[in-house]
Write a structure and sequence with these properties.
Layout: E1 3-4, H1 6-14, E2 21-26, H2 29-40, H3 48-51, E3 52-56, H4 64-71, E4 81-86, H5 89-92, E5 96-97, E6 101-102, H6 115-124, E7 130-136, H7 144-152, E8 154-158, H8 171-188, E9 192-193, H9 195-205, H10 209-222, E10 228-229, H11 231-243, H12 248-254, H13 258-270, H14 275-293, H15 298-313, H16 319-331
Parallel strand pairs: 1-8, 2-7, 2-8, 3-4, 4-7, 9-10
Antiparallel strand pairs: 5-6
Helix pairs in contact: 1-2, 4-6, 6-7, 8-9, 8-10, 9-10, 9-11, 10-11, 12-13, 13-16, 14-15, 14-16, 15-16
Length: 333
C-alpha cells in the first residue's frame, strides 16, 4: 500500500473514504494524536459507543486475536466501525527478553503461529466496513508481521521536523521547516510574526517538534490580541521558559507529593504554560519514568492521558481542571 501524508489522510477522511487499515507511526505525538482524533470523528457522536473501540496493545487482554475479533464486529446503526490500537509498537516492535526472545512475537526465524497468523490473515483481507488504525512510535520492519502490515496498510509517517525516521539531517533545512511551521501556526491564529521572532523560536526548538509546538502555543498565548508578534515577544517567552523549572510538576508526581504537584501546576499555568505542553510533559513522565518505577500503573495512566487529551481537544472542560484531575490520578500510589 502507498504511504500517505497527514494532509492526504485528512483529505481522505473529509471525503468519507478511509482505507481499511492504517499505520500511524512517528515521534510527533501531537500530530499523531490529532490524526487519531480525526479518524475517530468518522463515527457520529451518537454511535461512538457502538462503533468506535480504543484498544491499548500494552493491556494484557489485547492480543492480535482480540484486535481481529473487534475489527470483524459489524457496525451497529451505521455503515462503518473504527478500531484504534494504540501503543502498537508492543506488537510490531516488542522489547526483547533474554537471548532473543521477545514479549509477544519472536523474530522471523522463530515467530510462533496462531495468534499472529490470525492478524496477518486479517491484514491481507480486511473487513471493508471497518477502519483499523495502528498507532506506534516505531515498528521493526524486518519482522514478518510488520512486513505484512507494510504491504497491506496505508502508512502515515509523523516524524516532526526530521521528515523521516532515518533521514540525514540538514540542519539548515530543518530550521527553514521549523520557521515555516511557526509562521503558519501564527497565521492560522489570525496574527502575523516578524521574521526575526519566527527564526528565534525555530532556532530554540532545534530538531524537537514538541518543543517547537509548545513554544508556539506559549507565544500565541503571550501575544494574544496583538496583530503582529515581534522579536521582543519571542524573547520574553523563550527567556521565561528557560528560566522556569519545567519539570517541577513531574518531579512532585514522582515523589507522590500530590499537593505540591498541584501547586506547581498552578504556577506553571499562571506563568503562561500551554496546557498541551504540560500534557506532553506528563506523557513523557508516564513513558520514561512510571513505566520503569511502577509498570502496573501504566495502563491506567495511559488511559487518563488519552482521556485528558481528547477532553482538551473537544473543549470537554476547563483545561486547568482537566490537568488537575490528571495530576491527581498520576500521583496516586
Amino acid at each position: 500500500m502507498p504511504s500517505a501524508t497527514p494532509q492526504s489522510l485528512r483529505k481522505q477522511l473529509s471525503q468519507g473514504k478511509p482505507d481499511p487499515v492504517y499505520l500511524i507511526v512517528g515521534d510527533d505525538e501531537a500530530e499523531m494524536a490529532g490524526l487519531t482524533a480525526e479518524v475517530s470523528a468518522v463515527i457520529e457522536d451518537e454511535l461512538r459507543a457502538f462503533n468506535l473501540e480504543r484498544m491499548y496493545a500494552t493491556d494484557k487482554g489485547v492480543t492480535p486475536a482480540a484486535i481481529v475479533e473487534s475489527a470483524l464486529t459489524f457496525p451497529m446503526l451505521g455503515d462503518r466501525r473504527v478500531v484504534l490500537v494504540l501503543r502498537a509498537e508492543k506488537i510490531f516492535k516488542p522489547k526483547r527478553r533474554g537471548k532473543g526472545i521477545e514479549d509477544a512475537i519472536g523474530s522471523d526465524d522463530d515467530e510462533p503461529a496462531g495468534d499472529v497468523d490470525v492478524l496477518e490473515a486479517y491484514l491481507k483481507a480486511p473487513e471493508p466496513r471497518t477502519t483499523l488504525v495502528f498507532v506506534a512510535s516505531d515498528v521493526d520492519r524486518t519482522r514478518r508481521i510488520s512486513k505484512t502490515l507494510q504491504k497491506h496498510a496505508t502508512i502515515v509517517e509523523c516524524w516532526g521536523l526530521k521528515g523521516a525516521k532515518d533521514a540525514r539531517l540538514d540542519l539548515r533545512q530543518v530550521a527553514r521547516t521549523a520557521e515555516a511551521l511557526v509562521r503558519q501556526a501564527v497565521a492560522d491564529a489570525g496574527q502575523q510574526i516578524e521574521p526575526a521572532a519566527a527564526r528565534l523560536v525555530a532556532e530554540r526548538a532545534g530538531t524537537d517538534i514538541a518543543t517547537l509546538r509548545g513554544d508556539v502555543e506559549r507565544l500565541l498565548l503571550y501575544a494574544a490580541g496583538k496583530p503582529k508578534i515581534d522579536l521582543k515577544d519571542a524573547q520574553e517567552v523563550v527567556s521565561a521558559e528557560t528560566a522556569q523549572d519545567n519539570w517541577a510538576v513531574t518531579t512532585a508526581i514522582q515523589r507522590g507529593e500530590t499537593a505540591e504537584a498541584l501547586r506547581q501546576l498552578g504556577l506553571a499555568l499562571e506563568s503562561g504554560a500551554v496546557p498541551y505542553m504540560v500534557l506532553g510533559q506528563l506523557g513523557w513522565f508516564v513513558r520514561e519514568k512510571l513505566s520503569t518505577s511502577d509498570p502496573r500503573r501504566v495502563p491506567a495512566a495511559v488511559d487518563a492521558l488519552f482521556r485528558t487529551d481528547i477532553d482538551l481537544k473537544s473543549s470537554g472542560g476547563d483545561p486547568r481542571v482537566l490537568l488537575e484531575r490528571l495530576v491527581v490520578e498520576l500521583s496516586r500510589r
